[in-house]
Each structure stands twice: as C-alpha cells, then as structure tokens.
Batch of 4 targets.
Target 1
Amino acid sequence: MEQLWLYIGIGAGILSLGVAVILYFWVLRQDDGNDRTREVAGWIRKGAASYLKRLYLALTLVAVVLSFVIAIVFSFDLTAIGNGSADVRPINGFIMAVAFIAGSLCSAVAGYMGMAVAVHANVRSAVGVSDNLNKGFRIAFYAGSVMGLAMVGLAVIGMCLIFLLTGNPEIVLGFSFGASALALLAKAGGGIYTKTADIAADLVGKVEVGIPEDDPRNPAVVADNVGDNVGDVAGMGADIFDSYVASTVAAMLLGFAIGGPDQLKYTIFPLILCTLGIFASLVGIQFVRVGKDGKPGNALNFGTIATTVIFSILVALLVIFGGYDFSVLWSTLIGLVTGVVIGFTTEFFTSEDFKPVLETAKVSDSGAAITIITGFSYGLLSIFPSIIGIAVATLGSFYISQASEAVTGIYGIGISAVGMLSISGMIVSSDAYGPIVDNARGIAEMAGMKHEVIERADVLDSAGNTAKAITKGFSISAAALTVLALFAAYSEVIEARGVSVEISLRSPLVVAGVWLGAMAPPIFSALTMLSVTHNAFEMIEEIREQFREKPGILAGTELPDYEKCVRLAAQGALSSLILPAFLAVGLPLLVGFLLGPDALGGFLGGAIFTGVIFALLMANAGGLWDNAKKYIETGQFGGVGSDAHKAGVVGDTVGDPFKDTAGPSLNTLITVMSLVSSLFAPLIAAFHLF
Amino acid sequence: MAVHMYLSLIPEALIASMLEPEEFGTYYAVGTEKKSRGQAIFFEIDPKFRSELFRIEEALERCVPHDDGSPKRSIYIAIYRVLENIPLKAIQKLYLTTQDGRTLGIEPTAKLPKEENGLHLYREVSPVPPLVVSTLGPKSFYELIVKSPTSLVKVPAICFAELRLGNLATDPLHGDVGDLPYSNMEHLRKCLVDLKTKSVSTKMVDRLPTSGIPYRTIKNGFFVGNEEKLIHFPLPDEKELVEKHYRWWRSATM
C-alpha cells in the first residue's frame, strides 16, 4: 500500500506539473497589447533572462563542485563508524551526488518556469486590466499558479522517485540539500539584486531628480522591474521549495527512526501529506475569483482558506481510513492552523488597518529617527505572536505524538512542519502573483497606458503586497518548525552511527557552538545588506552619470541605457554571494570537524533561534515601514512632500533590504546549515578534533 | 523656427527662446550641461511686445539656431523687476513645470473666484516668495499689496497662488491637517489663530520657503496683477488633471 502512495505521489506531481504547463500556455495565448507594451515587457524579459543565465551558470559550477565533494564523501560507507569500520562504496557516493543534482535541478526548473511565465504574464496582465480588473487578476494569478504548481509537482516527483528507487530517506536528504543550496543562492542573490536596483532607482530617480515610480526615463527602472521577478518569483519560490522539501525529508528521517513494523508507513506519511496538498491546491486555485466586491485580496485569502479546509478533510479521511495514528492528524492540523494564523497575524504588524503602521506613520512627522525607532520596536514586538505560535505548535505536536504509542514526539513536530507547508502550491501561487502585478503596473506606467488602467493595476498590486507579507510570515514560521525537525534528524543520523549526542549547556563545547551559531544569522544579514548598499552605491553613480552625460534622457528625447544598470545589478548580486554561501556551508562544517557533533548541535540551536528572530524582525519591520510610507502617501499626516513623507521614505529605504534581502534569506540559511549538518553528520561523527 | 518670449518667475527673468513652451519648461526644469534644475513657472509673452526698458530686438537677433541646426534654448533679455514692467495684456498663457520637466499650460480668465469665508494661505511667487496667511480673499489681498495707498508693504506688481488650507481655514486650532504637506504645522496654526485673535489681516508664515510650490496644494490657481488689473489663471480641478494631464499630475504629486 505504501508503495502505491509513492506512485500516486508521482502521478499527483505529474498532474500538478501538467496543469502548470497548461496554465503557462494559457497565459501565453492572452493578448500582449501593442508595440509599445511589447517593447517595455521585452526590456524586462531580456534583463531577467540575462540575470538567470549568469545565476544558473554560477549555480551549475557550485552544483558540480559540491556534487563531486558529495560523491567522494559518501563513497565511504560510514554506517558502522561508531564501531571503527568504514567500507568504500563508490555507488553510494554516486547516488547521493545524483540526488543532490536532481534537487538542484528541480529547484532551478521550478524557478525558471516561474520566471518564464512571470515575464510574459506581466504585460498580459497589464493589457488584461485595461479591459477589466478581473481579467488582469486572472492572468496574474494563473501565472503565479504556474510557479506554485510546478514547484510542488517537481518536489513531490523528485522525493517520491528517489525514495521509490532507494528506499533510503537519507538519499532524499541529498535531494533536499541540492534544492537548499540553490535556494540560498537564488534567494540571497535575488534579494540583493532587487533591492540594489530598487534603492538606486528611488534615491536618484525619486529623491534627487523627482521623477515618479516606474518612469521610463529612469535608467534603473528596468533593473527594478527585473528585480521584482528574480527576487520575489524565482527567489521566494526557491525559498519555499527548499523549506517544503526540507520539512518533508526531516519528517521522513524521523519516521524512519521510529523503526518497527510501521517504519515505512510513517516514513512515507510526509510524502502522502504533500500529495494531498497538491490535490487540495489544485482544487483551491479554482476558488480564487474576484467577486462582486472587486477585491483581489479577498479572492486570494478565500483560495488559501478553501485549500486549507480541503486539505484538512483529505488528511482526516486518510488517517481514519488509512489506519494511521490520530496523533499525526492533530500534528498536521496544528501545523496547518498555526501557519495560517501566523501568516495572518503578520498582517497586524504590516497592514495600514492596525496600530503599528498607523503609529509609525503618525510619528514620522517628527523625523526619520522616530520612524526608525518606532518601526524597529514594532518589528521586535512582531516576534511575539509567531514565536508563541511556533512554541504552541512545537509543544502541542510533540506531546500529542509522544502520548501515542505509534510515533515519537519529535516526529509530531516534523509532521506539523509538513502540515504547514503542504499547501505550498496555493501559497506560492498567491505569492508569485505579487511581483507579476507589480510589473504589470510598471509596464502600464512605462507604456503610457491610461490612468484608469494604472489605477486598476494599483488595486491588484496592493493585494499582491499583502499576499507577499502573509507568505513571508508563513515561510519563516514553517522554516522554524522545519529546522527544529532537521535538528532532531541530525541527532538521529549521528546516533544511528553509534555516536551519542549530548547537547547540554553545561558543556563548554556546546556553549561555544551556541555562540558561534547565534552569530551566523546576524553576520549573514550584515553581509547581504552591505552587498546591497555597495552595489546600490555603484548603480547610483551610474544613474547620475547617465543623467549628467545624456541630458536628453530627462527631457524625454533620449533613451537611457537600461542594459547597463541590469548588468551592474546582476554582477553585483552574484559576486556578493561568495561570503554568505561560505558562511552557510563552510561554517557548520568547520564547527563540526573542529569542535565535534555536540558543539555542532549547539551551533544549530544558536543559529535557529537567532535566525528565526532576525527573520521575523526584519520581514515585519521592513513591511511595516513600507506600508507606513504608503499610508502617508494616501494623504495622511501631510501626504506626499510633507516632512512625515520624507521620514517615511527613509524608513522604507532602510526597511527594503530588511524585508526583501536579509530577512527572507535567513530561512534558507538556517535550513541549509541544518541540512549540511545532517548530511555530513556521519563524517563529522567519525572525524572531529574535540 | 519661431522665437518665443517667456517671463520666468523663478527667478524673475525675461527670456527669448526658440523652444516651444513645453520644451522650454523641460529644458528649464531638468537642465542641460549647466545643471540648472528644479520647478519652473513662466508666462508666455506676446511676441509683438516691445518696451524701451528691455533690449528685445537685440536679443531676438542673437536668438538664432546653433551651427548644428538645433534651436537656441535661451537668451536672457532681462533679470530683476521684470514683471512690474510688462503690461498684463502682453501676458498670454501660464506654464507650470514640475521638477522633472512635465509642463502644464493654463489659460487666463477674466473671472475671479468667488470670495469664501475663512482664512487664506498665499504663496507669493514674484517679486518675493514669502508664505503668508490672510483674512482677505485673493482680490482683497492683491488690492492690499498692490493698490492700497495705506499699506506699508506695497509692490508695483505681484504674482501669487492661493494654497489649500482645508479645515484649518475655518478651525485653525483644532482643524484636521489632512494631506497638507506644509512644514512646521504648529507654527502655521499659530499664525492662523493670530489672524482670528489679533487685529491684523495678513501674517507672514515663512519668509523664504526652501521648497518649491507644491502644485497639488494649489486651491484655485495663480493670480497676477499690477496697478492696472488682476488676472486669474485657474488650475483645472483634480479630476480633469488626472484625466487629461495624467503625466503632469503624477509628477506634481511626487
């Protein structure tokens, strides 16, 4: 029966992928407007393609090098390392390397599909919205669904296929590491790219020269729009792909550790949840329609809730009729509900309907310093509901599962993470919708479409921003539970080799590990944000030079050199990834080989706790500053041009790399660190200095 | 190529140019190699206008295309005290250019806006640029400054705009500020309260405002007057600006 579920999983993955392909071609069949809209969209498409080409070239090199390392390392059979023996089996290394490459490839293909459709859908959504709001919305959402469905489809096909062929969840860990390694580079690179272009375009265009957003005279306008795609479509997609796979494989490893007659049953259970999640997402997407109220945000929320309900029913039926222990149902539901609740509580801190944003906007009248202090303080406070949610989910799922005789408590935590992420198909669809409508608005502006079209595109854009904020809260919380499960999986993998792990704060090695781990997320954040400022500085000089050397640009008689800004952003983003990548992969290995498995356990604990806190703080504070500025722009507290607005712009600019570069990349950082540790755990158990 | 004459108000200057008004606005606002930049407000002057005070013919002779055929952008005919020496009948259209070079042309009208109750906020443009609050409507304010023989403060000609005060016009102490972007709002409130509590009809809020004129806060347009008469250049309402002049309006609301 379990084998059958693997085939069903592969079938569901193919179905999901098939629907994604059908939607892709449906989007391509939509009207892309006139020569001008096509020309503008062509600039963005070209810029995105050029970045992706460089990114994937760099990723190929990284993947090849890492796969060689993995092939060599895993050629040593370290199963009995605790007993002092180790055989050489090159086939094991080869299989692990193939799994790693497959994970990288699936993540890359999902990201590429998302980007490929986004850069065609943006212009079509802009043209669609010129007919009516619903048409523009439908094109953008279905294009977003291509990303969502392709992502879950490829992930489930990959995981099911590898487990079907090898029967070993540790090999699926290799698949997950491949996906995560690529996700880290795609997310951090995309985040650096998008904010470099955004900040440079705004600081010179809006502040110095006084030209509006998305004005075609701004040399960085195309890079800015390309950035929306590489950061928020490919980057965010890769991030959730990584959490999705990592949470599943962590739960599989913990299920495998249960042992006994139900070992296979509970090892495969996370894959079954993903499969049901695909079916729920496929149905849930059908519920996403703009109603008579004309509110796209409500349509997206309704789709998410519908998917959640459908998924819950399917899991309940599975547990009841499949003979699973009821604790796994409760763990799944705890994770699912916690994810949705955390996602929506994020809205409290970032929406202009609530106190944090309103107060930050109000105090902006007193200057940028107060704006920063208030926003930062609310960002810190925003940690509270998410951490409580994560704690409740952790305790609830642990103790419910612990009480059952069928599974372990820690398995319950792993399942709650999978439960949270199993509706990723729908979540990513809503998230990818955001940058598409953002681009649509930009194209409408650049192509000189009527103001009614721009106003309608604004309505779509606003819903996209909210969806983006909800997804961030959701993905950070999911990553937190995922890494907790991976943390447990790390211990299981080590102990399976006959080496006991004791992570006690009474051990100086563990304490040293905790400190080093706690240091990693802030250092990573600093590196990525400094990359943004360095690259933005260069781009600002370039934009100024273009305005200086070609006065016709501002006069509207000469075209700027968009290509140069696109090139600068891409080069800057990719060259900035070396140190952060080393931090993610190299530092845990260094700690592990030098200080040993206990210290590495402490390292992971430290990294997880500061990583989650920093990620929540940065994502929410950044979103809050952004919306406080937008609220002032609606005419409150003096509106555009007022002192409050100037302070709001400063807050927004500070928050940009918080929310779109460092914050969301931290999820991936802690996942990669946990995966590297779990993957290399057998080797670390065998060779360490202390 | 026809030669135009423009009366710039920021700074006050009479300029001959081969550029059309929209092109001149862009040139004047976004600059060229000379790096002169910023908001521009100027009138187009009747090309037949001549005056002994200005060496117009000499300037027009110099206003010829460059060697490469491109139009001559500007020949300065005069600076300082220009407005007071140009008869209002020579003033044709008013052009408002945003900081990024979008230009809007406004036709004059003989009809003045209806006097309203409440307080008023004026941004003088020429000859000096203070921000002033007053109990007087635009016509009375103009008369006080230009025509009243009893006033100590008197100028031969003036150009000013009335800016929106929103609720502050009727309730300066408690009125909601709304989307008014003026800096130091408390000082503005105090000046308005003074008008209500003291026996003064005008009060200076800001001697030398550092920013330009926020076009989006203009209430009923610009006024230009001398001892002869007062002309009104009404700004179209927001709906019309959004529908017919979207690019300009978007820049103006930056």
Target 2
Amino acid sequence: MSSLLYYSISSNFSKDEIIEIDKQVARNRQEVYLFLTKLPLNGKRKSKRLFLYGIFLFHLGQPLCAAAVVMSVPPQSIHRLYSIEGSRTITNTRCFQIASILSSKVDKIRFTNEQIKQFDGLTRQLSSGFITMEEAILQLRGGEGLTDIVAVIAFVIFVNCYDSVFGVEAFQANPLPHMDPMGWFNSKYERNPMQHTSYKSSRFELEMAGVTDEMCPSPEMADKNGFVMSYQEAYNLVADTYPGYMQVDESHKITDWQAAKHIYHANGMDIDPADYSFTQQDLERIRGESRYKGGGLIAYARRGYRLPPIEMVQEYQLRLKTSCENAPIKRTKVPYYDVNGAWQAGVFATPPSEGSSGIIIAFNESTGDLMTGDKQKKPTFDRFKNENYLGGKKWMLKWSNK
Amino acid sequence: MSTDYNKKRYLQLLDQRNIGDNSNNDELSRYSCMLTNQLDWEIRDQYLSLMEKFLNGNISMPEFFAELRIKTYAIIDAVIFLEKHRILLSFDKKASKFGELLEDVTDELEGDLSYTGDGFKNLIQENFIKIKKYLNEE
C-alpha cells in the first residue's frame, strides 16, 4: 500500500529527473484514487470499510501534524508540484504546476491550514451528528468539502502506520470502546438517557439485569479472578454501549441491555451469530462460567470479552418485537420460574405452524422489560400453553410448593 | 412404538392444520411432542456424551450450553421439516420418558445460572445418572 504520493525535491535534480518523478507520483496517485473511488458502498464488506474509514477519520481528528511519511529522497525543502485542483483531474498528467513553497520540516508531509480546517470541520460534523458516516464518506469520495488527494494521502498514511502502531487486532469487527474510534465518532458511547429516568437507579431492575453486589468484588479479588476492569468500569461500558430500548407496546419494552444479556437466544430468532463474528459459545459466556462468580453483562464485560455489537442487539430486538406484534397468544401474570425464584411475566406466544416453530417471548411484569425470547421445543411450548408457566419444571415444583 | 400412535391420523391432523383447521390442535400437539421426543431419543448418545464431557471437565459451561442449544434448535427445525414434508418416524417406546428426563437438562437453557460452587455440575451429574439408569433398564 506504500506509494510515492508526495516527494521532496533536491535542488540538485535535473529538470528531466523532476519530471520523471512527477510522472511516477501522478501514476501512484491515480492508482490510489481509483482504489478509493471504486470502494463499493453497498457491498458485503461495507461495514468493514466504513469501520476503516471511521478509524481513519478518528485519527484525522487527532493532532494532524503527527501524520508523516518519510520519503526516500534526500532531505530538502518541500515543493508541491501538483496543485490541489490538479488532483481532481488526476489522469491529466500534463497539468503540472508549481505550487507555493512551504517552509516546512524536511521530508514531512504537511497539510495546509485549509486542509486541516476541512478535516476538522468534517470530523466535527460527524462527531456531533450533523452528518452520518455515509455522508462523510460521500464527501471524501466526491471531493465535496474535502480535497480528494488529501483524503487519499491521509488514508494511505493511516493504513501504512496503523498495524505497526495499534496491531491487527484493532481491526476486529466488534471492538471494545477503547479500541473503537468509529463507535465514538458515531456517538455510540455517548450516554443517551433512558426515557424512563429511574431505570438505572432501580435496584430491582439492576438485579433483574444481572447486576448484584456479589458481582462487585474488591480490586484484590478482581485481579485474582482475572477481571480486566472494575465493576464500575464494566457497568459504565455496558450502560454506554446499550443505552436505549425498543418499545413493543404500552406496557412492554426491550431495553438494549436486556436484549444483549439474552443475545444467546438470537440464533433461535434466525440471527446467525457468525454474521457478527460471534459463535454460540461466545454468546453463552454471557450467562456465566463455572470459574467465575455471577453471570450477566457486567461480569461478562469484566472478564474482558467482546460485547455484542448494538446492531446485533437491535436486530434481535426487532425480530422479537415483530414476533410480539403478530403473536396470537398474549397472556399476563404467567409465572416464570428459575433458580432464583418466581417472577410474573407477560407473554407473547406464537404456536408452531406448518413450516415455522413455536416462539415464546416473556417480559417481566414489574419492569416491563424482556426476560426471554426464543423458539421452543414442542413439549416446552405445550407446557406453557397447557400449564401456564415458564421455566424449569423442577423450579416450578420448588417455588410453587407443589 | 407408542400404543396410541397412528401415522394416518398424524398425517390427517397435519393436513387439517395446513388448511387452517385448528380444531384438533391438542391432538396434533401430542403427536408433535412424540416426534420431538423420538428425535431426542435418536441422538441420546450425543446428549450423554455431551454431559459426560462436561462432567469430566473436557468442556466448559459455555461450550456445554452452546452445543446443547444448537442441538435443541436442530431438533426444533427437524420437527418442522419432517412435518412439513410429511415424513413420520416410528416411535420407540422409551422415547417419551427419555424426553421427560432430558427436559430437566434442557430447561437450563432458560433463566439465570446463579449456581454456587459445584451446583450446576451436580445438577448435570444427577441427571446423567438418571438417564443412564433409565437407558439400562429393560
């Protein structure tokens, strides 16, 4: 990906040598230009490319003087032989012009003040939500508001430098926020208050979300247990990653948090975890592991696992909501039993039919939030339908004193 | 084979459902449950092997649940497929009881996993022994 795109010119070069270098630079620019302009926006790898662009833009938002490329020619003062306007018609190699001489450092590419303003403006618009990532990319691709060649160069610099600085793992599809500049650009980690402001302060609801004091060991214990972050850090991370909810009806909602906590059911709603670079086993870790105390998202995050991306969670929410809206069976006050006790659930159920399985989606009646949502085996579905309870039979026998 | 299993009747009920007649849904449900249990029975060795691997510490709890859940989904999908294509199996007389015993394990796919100590392992061990014992019965 390394290309000679800008160059230093020694005063010792002959005119022919300068022209030869200039032609080579023009060819390189053209190749990179074509590479970028041919990036499909609707292709299968769109999201990955968007991510690359996002990280690229993130770094553009950092002090721009840090971007530099060491060139192979001897250190001399920097000349730009290719004008900005020329870059828009890059195939015309005869459009050479002598640009103004920058009194810049030796062998460094420097952005002009105008280019820096352009980048800063774009990144500010992006981070403040005035434009979407797609619009930003369109500007990059179309040259509106930004000069193409500048974007190309910065992108190349970024790609050249990124692996050595951050490591390949930084490009993972679902990074943690500290590895996810695109997420920050998209305001993914900005705390959007829930519409019901008591949500996070309700101890009962926190407990329902799997947050208990038992999962908040002292720092010494955290190290011993292999936790990579504190309880508070994990809580903030989860709360910031899953800030919203999807309303199902006036009484029921599916918070991002609860949907993420139950995302191991997503496969049952015809969502392939592999589409989000997860395995079923990865998702099952959210429920807990033998060697760790406590389950749920907080404990999962503390163990350093990758959080399911909000897009995956939203897809699960949407499928659940659609199923709820079409469910022919709706019941309230259905007992839901598990190892901790009994809960009252509002249930939306779709019986199996020709070509489709039975689905049960349950909501906690106290919080109105999701408890579970998945397709079910026929005996399990019939147990709900005929005996009107959810959860394990042994827990039903235990907690109902039968 | 179950005494009250009648393939012709099962087919008839499936056809009824297909044209929107749900008047005999309860009866059809019983057949569908039998088919589910039969499929579980067909892969009983896999269930036992899975539990054994977990008990021996060869797989973790997430691995155990991932495999169990995938099997469960596969059974659900298989029932749908077989009924849709009117492919009906013969039933083993031990399948229904096996299905009941297995439920105590598959029920764990739902709900919280707030087990302490070896609580979950003990639960699996208890059910493993029960199922083994049942399979060894005449």
Target 3
Amino acid sequence: MTAALEIANLQAWYGESHVLHGISLAVQPGEVVALLGRNGAGRTTLLRAVMGLTGRRSGSIKIGGKEAIDLPTYKIAHLSVGYCPEERGIFSSLSTEENLLLPPLLTPTGTSGQGMTVDQIYAMFPNLKERRHSQGTRLSGGEQQMLAVARILRTGARLLLLDEISEGLAPVIVQALGRMIADLKARGYTIVMVEQNFRFAAPLADRFYVVEHGQVVENFDAAALEARMPLLHELLGV
Amino acid sequence: MEIFGIPLQALMSQLLLGLVNGSFYAMLSLGLAVIFGLLNVINFAHGALYMVGAFLAYLGVTSLGLSYWAMLVLAPLAVGVLGVVIERTMLRRLYQLDHLYGLLLTFGITLLLEGLFRSFFGVSGQTLEVPEKLAGATDLGFMVLPNYRAWVVAASLVVCLGTWFTIEKTRLGALLRAGTENPRLVEAFGVNVPRMVMLTYGFGVALAGLAGVLAAPVINVTPLMGSNQIIVVFAVVVIGGMGSILGAIVTGLALGVIEGLTRVFYPEGSEVVVFVVMVIVLLLRPAGLFGKEK
C-alpha cells in the first residue's frame, strides 16, 4: 500500500536558521498520527514544511506516492492535503460561511474520496450553521477552531494536517474536538496532528512520533504507549 | 435663479465637472486600493498607465482608424497586459521586501513611460474628438448637460460599483479578501495565488487605462497628464484609508465634488482643497475615513 505521507531526511530552514534536521516518518492511509514534543521542537515547522510554507527544504516528501518537495504550495494542496494552521487562520473580512466555502475543491490526480458536503459539515457542526452569517473572527475560540477544521473537510482532501487544534480551548470544547477526530477517522481520513495536550492525543492516535530539536527521537504505536510513559514523562513532562 | 449669489447654471456645471473629476479619482484610487490590498505595493506607475490608456485611445482612433468604442475595450486590455508583464518580470521579485522598493520601482517605470511618450509626442498635448453618439448636450431646464460628461460619470459609477460588488459579494472576491489577509494560507488551500496576484495587478492598472480612455476626450492628452493626477489620487487614497475599496470610491467622488464646489465659491482654493482635507483627516483619523486602525 502507498503511504499517505512518507517523509525522508527532511531538512528545512527559515532564512538562515536550520530548523528541521533530517526528519523521516511514514503515515499509512486511514491512520491517526500524533506528533509529540516540546514547544519549539519543530513539529509546527514540520507541518509547514510539508505544505511548502517554510524557507528552503531538502529531502523527500511523498504524498500519496507523489514527490512534493519541489512543488509550489498550491500544487501540494492538490495532492489531496488539508492544512489547519496553529493560529487557525480564520479570515476576518469573510463571514463564517465564506470562510467555510473558501478553499476550492481539490482536483487530485490520484485516487481519493469525495469531500463532505456542506450539509454534512453543518450536521457535524450545528453552531457553524447557526452563525454562518457572522464575521468569521466573531466566533468563539472553539467555533473558530471547528470552522478551521470544517473548511478543509469539504475540499476532498484525505490527508489532514492539524496543528494544535486543542490549544487554549475549554475542556468541554476539547472533548467535542476529540469526538470530531474519532468521527473523521471513522470516515477514513488520514490525520497528522501536532499536539501539546498529550491527554487529548493519547486516546485518538494510532501512532506517535516524538520530535526533539528538529529530529524524530521516538516512534511507537498506541499499544506501546503504556511502556513508553516514563520516557514521555522525562521528555515532555506528562 | 441664484444660490449664495452664484447662478444655478454655473453651480451645477461646476458640480458636474467635479463629479467627472471625482469619477477619475474614484477609478484610479480604486485600482490603487485593490493593488495595495493584495500586493502590498504602492503603485506609483498608476498615473503613467492612465496616461498610456489615454494615448492608446488617441492613437487607436487617429492612427488606426478604430472607433472610440473599440478603444474603450482595447486600450484597458493593452494596459492590463502591460501590467501583467510588469508584475511577472519585475514587481514579483519585490514582495518580500519593504514597501519602499515597490514604490521606487513603479516610480522608475513612471519616468520611463513618461519619457518614452514625451520623446514621441512632445509635451504640447493632443485632443481626442468626443464620439459622435455622445456629442452635444441635453437641456435639463435648470442646466445644460454635456452628454459625454454624463457618460463618463455613469460609466465609471458602473465600473466602480461592479468592482465593489465583485470584491465584497462574490466567491472570487472572497478569495481576494482572504488573499489580502493571509496569502500563504490561501495558497495552502490550493489556490494559485501568484497567478491571482498577477491578474489583480493587471486588472488594477486596466482600470487606470480605462480611466485614461474616458478622460481622453475631455482633457488634454499629454505625457504628463498622469503625474498631475496621481498626486491628487494618492491624497484621495490617504483620505479614504489605504486598501479600503468602498473608501476609495466614495472618497474619490466626494473629493471631486468638493473640488468643484470650491472652484465656485473660492476659486483660489480649488487646487489645494484636497490636501487641506487630507491634513484634517490625518489629524483626526490617521487611518483614513474608511481605514481600520492597526
């Protein structure tokens, strides 16, 4: 089976500063993978590097088997990737519905499923439907986060890169986001998520990568989680 | 009939003249606003491209024997293509840098274009005949309305409102607004942002070209006509608020009218009134009437 995402020896820079030092990882279709690590370890940069949003990059990034390291950002998206940035990126000059409908439908050349319809998305996020005419940035933090994820579900993207979606949200909202991830997994999405909140990610992910100083230092699956807790405690303080 | 000792006829005709000038201000500052919003470039070449539009109309009609109506389409198209070439080959390289570089480059392009046209046509100026269908005037009873001027105001209103509608109410406009806020993220959604930027610049300067064609029959077409205009238009943009679409349109028209009225009541002040307004606005609302405080 072709990996949904296969990264080999990825190096990335922001200007002169060398941020990623040879990252390698693989994500299979339908998997949920969590990237753990301290702030500044390079996890957000890793997602940005996949999208071509950092400076210079080298190495290999294969998305659904296609090499993406030399593609411009907009073509990477068309390899069926949906990206939800850490800062959520809700546009203040657009209404909620305009935000939702903004990302164009992707036209991947490979095999990929259909995106969710707007009705399905509104059924999943009733709040967004209720507030669809509000300015995007007038929504609550939790609603903005849901909107940021919802808008990449419509496009036909199958690989979702979610950066810190639980950050700064109330526990009840975080729980709802957890149910959403489980739901998306059941729908067959492949998900790579960067998470600071270990307790949020632990029950959701199939596999974990631990990133330190721009390198992968640990890689294990959910079954091995219990055995790795002492190590995680040391690395992440969880 | 007289108002404040001014014959109504004179008042109305100055008002109309103000509206005509305001139409040009509105179209030019609208293009500047759209370009600044998405490209972050202060397009100093806007006035020169307005001049190019006027000259192309003049040349098309007098040398090629094309009609005014054909040039109304062809000249803005040609100016738009010229804009696309400028964006592709030069401007594109400056987006990562300070505003100042874009300003300097487009200022250089202005000098180049003006010099080029001056060496071919001199500075004396040409005039384009008003097209036959719009020649003459209509007597409205309280004033005589020159048909061509009415056409200029109507045409520019349609173009400005059409642009405003497209940007504020359509999907294409949503992409533009989002691209103005966060172009990298819009690109990460799969939108070819570099192409969108290129076409936006082309469209913005095509608006200037169109303003040039509309102006050609009512003003003296000279290589420096753009420089005279662009300073006032920059003042309009500052008053309206940099980057605001509606602000550019409303402010452009309003300042044209204010200028016209000043010409009636205090002619000596008509050349500076726009700048006086600018000073007042900057003192009271530094971000402009329609701009958002940062």
Target 4
Amino acid sequence: MKSDAARFFGHGLPYKKIGELKGSLIVIEGTDGVGRSTQTELLKPWLELEGYGVTSTGLTRSLLLAETIDEAKRGHELNVLTFSLLYAADFADRLENEIIPALQAGFVVIADRYMYTAFARNDVMGADPGWSRTLFGFGLVPDLVLYLKIDVQSLIPRVLGGKGMDYWESGMHLALGSDIFESFRNYQTRLIREYNALAREFCFVTIDARQPVEVIQAVIRQRVGRLLQARKRRGRTDGVEGPAERDAAAEPR
Amino acid sequence: MTRETSPAAMRLKEPHPYPGKLIIVEGIDGSGKSTQLSLVHRWLESEGYRVFFTEWNSSALVRRAMRRGKKKDLLTPTTFSLLHAVDFFDRLTYKIIPPLKGGMVVLADRYVYTAFARDVARGVHPEWVREVYSIAPRPDLALYFRVPIEVSLARILSGRQKLKYHEAGMDLGLSRDPVESFRLFQSRVLSIYDSITREFGLKVVGAVGEIDDQQRAVRRMVQRVLRGVEPEARAAG
C-alpha cells in the first residue's frame, strides 16, 4: 500500500476511485466558543506564506444540506436519529465534493470540526455509540487532529462575552436544565466529557484552550509544520510513520 | 465478512414488540406493488381495521434537499443513501412507530430493503447500509413483487412515457440511453433483491399475473398475519 493512499474509519466509499492524496487533512476540534475559528483564521495565512495551498471547511456548510439543517433546527422536529443522519449527509457531501478533491490536488485542508463533533453530540443525545461510528464509516482518517480542550467554568464567560448562549449549543432540545444557563452548563459538561474520551480513543493532539491565543497558535503551527515536513520526507522516502497511521489503527467502534 | 452474522441483520430478524402490525411491499418500479398495496388498504378499511399508510421518500424534512440534489445532480451514492435514511427515520419516528404502538395496521410502500437493494446497486457497502438501518423494526409481512425488467419497463413506458433520472440509474453513467440505463441498473437491483429475499425471508409474489389473481394471493397472506388482531369496528360492536 502506498503511504499516501486514503484511509477510512470503516467501509469507506467503495464506488469511488480515490488514489493518492497528496494534500494533508488537518482537523481542529473542540466545543462551541473554544476559539476554533480564530485559530483557523490565524493558521491559514501562515500556511499560505509558507507556500501551501490552503482550503477550509466547517460543519453544515454543504451546498446540499445547509438550508435543510437550518430549517429543521428552526422547526425543532429532529430527533437523535434524523439529526445524526442529516449531519452525516452534510459531512459526506463536503467530504466527496470538497475535501477529497482538494486533497487530491495537494491542498492542505483545515476542517473546523469533523465527525468527532458528531460522535460527541450523538453520544450526549443518547445514540448508540457503535451506530454513530459505523454511520461515519465512509469518513477519511485525518492526518492530524488538534483538540482545543477547555473546562465548562472557563467556557461560560467566553460564550457570554461572545455571541451568547445559543439554543442548540445549550442543549435546550434535551431539556437538561430549568433555564438556558443551567442547560448550557449541563450540556457542555457532558459534551466536553465526550470530547475528552474521544481524544483518548482517536489520539488527538490536546491543547489547553485556556492559554492566550498566540500561545495556542504557536503550538498548532509547530504540530502542523512537523506533519507537513514529515509528509514531504515521506514523499521522497516511503514508509515513515505519521500520526495518521496511529489513528487508522484505532478501532472505529 | 458474512452478512448472516452481522448484528444489524440479526436485529432486523427479531419480531417487534408493538401490538400493531407492519406490512410492507418491495419491488422495482413497475412491479405493481403500489397498486396491490392500495387494494389491500381499501380492503382492510372496509373490514374495519384502522390502517395507516406511509411511503418511501415522502417526508417533508428532506424534500428540499432531495429535490435540489436530484435536479443539480449533486447526489453521490452516499448522500443519496443518507438522505433516504433521514426520510425513513423521520417517518419511522412520527408515522410508523406511533400507529404500531396504537395497535394499527401500518402499510409501507417500500421499506429498508429498498435501500439495501438500490444503494448497494449504486455502490455503497452492503454492511454499512444494513448498520444505518439496523434500528428499524422487522415487518410482520414483507412482500417482494418480482417482475422481469421488460415487464416493468413496458408498464412504466405505457403509463407516463418517461423514465425518472435516478430510477434509471442515470447518475451512474452506465449508458446515455435512459431505457438502456434502466435495464442495466434495475437488473443489478433485481439480482440484489433476490439475495435480500433469501437473507430476510421476504415473501415473493410473482408479479406478472392478473391484478385480481395477485390480490387474492396477497390477501391470503395478509389475513394470516392479522389473525388475532381484532378490527376496530368488530371490536366495538
């Protein structure tokens, strides 16, 4: 097997000829308000200055489903199954139509959240974890997952000082508290617990998100730089172990 | 990997716990399954049963995405499969489980086996699609209307004269001619249906005969399943 051949969590996309993926897939994970977008915005121009072609993607931005998801959320008619499946469809659409083509063309793809967020949410909503993971069996294993870790006490002032507490990010659909504040705290506590478990399961690179923005960015650049250099070396001499091999070895279930 | 031992397949083989009955029909387009099911519907109502009907790909939740995806040819085999799964689980939650819990007879025009046949013919992994639908309850009666391609083609073309894009598998680029593409794609679907029939024990109805002959055979099977279920009218009277 070629070192840059696509690796999937499960059964993959059997009908699709993918071939060599020259680019790198970098995922930034973490709960809402933790600073993922800020870090993505800082990482992108740096990589471009280094000479890489960069593209970024985020959840529910697919051409096919963005409107449907917004509409369904407004109507509050989703349950855990349809919620999971809609996100999976959105993810598949972006994977096949944006992420894989960009990787084939040699771009660095920065994904602001990936299927792990779906796992965390599905777990909190009570979906069968085995089912969630099999559902995303078509997902490509990223080269690097950077996890911005925070505790709920540090998260609360950030969210209140930012865009405020949102219905869905507060888990109001789960009726977890008497008001939005209580609900937010309970929901985010559970969500963060799931992210932490996923970090162990899928070997994320965990970064303390309570640090100053520049400090976090420096850690991210160091990790990303190391990955891209390793890939370059591997392009010349095949067979160097990268983080992707580690992730691929982790069981999807 | 053996499909027989998959946990997903096992779950679909266990009877559901609800007091109602779930009767579903499967088959390619032009197999006559919808005609037969609507005759059963009318008959059961006249017998006094409380009947609820639901059909594949009819939920409002994904209508827009489906229309958009089909019109612009944006769907891949995976997104095609997942959108149909959203439709199915939306209907399962709101339209199939509640009437089953309420002791009604639920009639479904197409069920999970449609996904197992069509999505796999499009190239998704058979094991994956079974896992996706693994939470679905097993029908009390699943009828498969088996029909040769040429008969189904003749029925469709004599009626609405035009084959639908995805029904003909045009998205797979098998042939530029819709009729030829339909033949190639639906032949795949047919052969997969045959193996599903064995895997999940669907009851085969030879769908070439006269409508009333088929209906008599279908009613006999329905009657057997409804044994012990009291029609509302009779129960009240």
